Write a sequence for this structure.
């Protein structure tokens, strides 16, 4: 019989995956989709969470079989095209997501503690403060402190958001139908957008680049051989189960409350609307949960993404022959990227990006199908992964990921985006059209 400490040791990495993958974009897109389509599309949340599980499980199997991260495997075995594509993506992703996360933290904290004269000022000051706080926690606390803080944040997020959904839901039979009867609403008002928003909801569950973080946390936990395969599957199962719960809760909330806005501003407007049915306590409960979601996502990105950059630098410099001798160099690259990830995206707090975000969206749209393709190529080879190679059902699931996420990219990138940079007129630096809520959710 497992005690509480042993249970947490098994699912600890799953908690990190959930806390890092669920951010303001996920919550906003789920709420907005629920607002447009109701609870009929809850099944898409479950399907999206399952697809992200398939990807992360394949990444995990590769690492247990070869002792290499999936990035190492792709660069070493698939040629020069991988680093040429990956580095621009990593840099763009880091800038836009870093800016979006600080903006979301700033907006949410200003709604909780409105001490500044304007919301835009509060967004900037609180956003910068959260970015610096994440930097300090990563620098001073190490991995054990990071784990503890993430567990606290995920606790706030889970209890507050789920409690809000339970209190506000008025038709549980519709929820059950939406979960178990796959259907896309087809009415005169939403026929044109219903498929696009359903795919957006499916793509918005979890993260994109943050899927890679799991491999680096496996190394922190010394999970380095196939004997821990079952444990890894258990914590990934927990991760995407809880991710699905958050998505389901936000769809239920969005289907009940009529709101307007984008990104983190939508979350704040949603909290304001909850005051009427649930009172101020309901508003505060939801905001605390939303803050837990966005700050845990920021902290997870700050802690793990620099490790991806270190991995990349070591690979292109062919330094894996003797890792011990290059520990100092790796730390230098880690801290360099950590500071850059914190400081450079602060520029984005001042602006609402449009044409550049479209370019980022084009690159971001390709990440999930590219990862699926890499897993199909690498994990299908017995000479590399032995008995941990893809089974036929895993191969089918990865092929479905290719189709689903390419479709998600197509449905979103066909939307026109107005060019050039404009000063901020919204609370958040996230784009101002409905379609760009979808961009953020799918590509973050």
């Amino acid at each position: 019989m497992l005690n509480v400490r042993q249970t947490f040791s098994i699912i600890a990495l799953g908690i990190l995956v959930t806390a890092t993958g669920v951010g303001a974009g996920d919550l906003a897109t789920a709420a907005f989709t629920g607002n447009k389509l109701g609870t009929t599309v809850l099944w898409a949340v479950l399907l999206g969470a399952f697809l992200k599980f398939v990807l992360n499980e394949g990444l995990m199997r590769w690492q247990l079989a070869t002792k290499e991260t999936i990035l190492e495997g792709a660069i070493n075995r698939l040629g020069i095209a991988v680093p040429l594509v990956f580095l621009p993506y990593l840099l763009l992703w880091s800038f836009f997501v870093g800016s979006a996360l600080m903006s979301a933290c700033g907006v949410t904290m200003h709604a909780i503690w409105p001490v500044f004269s304007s919301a835009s000022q509060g967004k900037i000051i609180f956003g910068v403060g959260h970015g610096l706080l994440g930097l300090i926690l990563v620098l001073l606390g190490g991995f054990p402190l990071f784990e503890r803080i993430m567990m606290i944040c995920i606790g706030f997020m889970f209890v507050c958001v789920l409690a809000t959904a339970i209190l506000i839901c008025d038709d549980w039979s519709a929820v059950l139908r939406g979960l178990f009867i796959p259907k896309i609403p087809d009415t005169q008002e939403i026929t044109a957008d219903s498929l696009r928003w359903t795919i957006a909801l499916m793509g918005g569950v979890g993260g994109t680049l943050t899927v890679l973080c799991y491999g680096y946390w496996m190394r922190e936990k010394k999970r380095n051989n196939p004997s821990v395969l079952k444990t890894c599957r258990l914590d990934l199962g927990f991760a995407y189960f809880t991710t699905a719960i958050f998505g389901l809760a936000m769809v239920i909330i969005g289907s009940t409350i009529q709101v307007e806005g984008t990104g983190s501003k939508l979350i704040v407007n949603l909290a304001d609307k909850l005051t009427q049915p649930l009172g101020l306590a309901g508003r505060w409960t939801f905001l605390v949960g939303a803050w837990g979601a966005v700050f845990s996502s920021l902290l997870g990105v700050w802690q793990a993404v620099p490790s991806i950059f270190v991995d990349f630098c070591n690979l292109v410099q062919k330094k894996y022959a003797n890792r011990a001798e290059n520990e100092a160099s790796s730390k230098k690259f880690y801290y360099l990227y950590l500071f850059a990830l914190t400081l450079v995206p602060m520029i984005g707090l001042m602006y609402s990006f449009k044409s550049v975000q479209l370019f980022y969206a084009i690159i971001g749209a390709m990440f999930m199908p590219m990862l699926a393709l890499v897993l199909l190529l690498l994990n299908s080879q017995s000479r590399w992964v032995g008995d941990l190679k893809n089974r036929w059902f895993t191969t089918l699931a990865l092929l479905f990921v290719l189709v689903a996420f390419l479709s998600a990219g197509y449905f979103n990138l066909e939307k026109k985006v107005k060019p050039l940079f404009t000063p901020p007129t919204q609370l958040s630096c996230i784009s101002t059209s409905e379609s760009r809520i979808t961009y953020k959710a799918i590509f973050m």
User: Anything to note?
Assistant: The CA atoms of residues 51 and 401 lie 6 Å apart. The longest helix spans residues 119-168.
